[in-house]
Amino acid sequence: xxxxxxxxxxxxxxxxxxxxxxxxxxxxxxxxxxxxxxxxxxxxxxxxxxxxxxxxxxxxxxxxxxxxxxxxxxxxxxxxxxxxxxxxxxxxxxxxxxxxxxxxxxxxxxxxxxxxxxxxxxxxxxxxxxxxxxxxxxxxxxxxxxxxxxxxxxxxxxxxxxxxxxxxxxxxxxxxxxxxxxxxxxxxxxxxxxxxxxxxxxxxxxxxxx
Length: 210
Fold this sequence. Notes:
The model has no long low-confidence stretch (mean pLDDT 96). The chain starts with a helix and ends in a 5-residue tail after the last helix. The chain has one domain: NADH Oxidase. It is of the alpha+beta class and 210 residues long. It is globular and about 60 Å long. It has helices at 3-9, 23-34, 53-59, 68-71, 86-99, 108-119, 123-147, 160-166, 202-205; strands spanning 45-50, 74-81, 151-155, 174-183.
């Protein structure tokens, strides 16, 4: 189908039937997330791919008891860096230069300039920026899922601190930002999918500056 048809097909699924996703489709969705752009290419986040039922049952009560948490096939937890450290930035540039067969000196100016800007920011600003990068990846994952006709739901309704503790994220220098449910909808309980799509008009949403 065309991109437009794919976008019109997609909706935030509220009811899942428990059917597991085919592994091939899951891998394609994860690859789309991996290939998503991020500021300076740093990819300052990790994505926890949770299939384990027992763990998701623990996740549900700290996610406002949302049914998708346990009825979906998988839950993805996007966890952003809690700060941009020199070690993290240096490690990325070393890796990038190795992949591109470049000497480390080739990117020193860019790297040092980036570190200089980051040093002027607070840890909260670092996390907010890293979270934005995770959301870009979330968007790519949602589109990839729709293209494969896998139902998905972005989820912000959860207790971040409790999720962080459950998944031991602080020990990894990470903080949860957003969840994503993946699976196949239950036509009877997916009440949201029965409603007409509501979007603002092009005239109201876009402002052309010529």
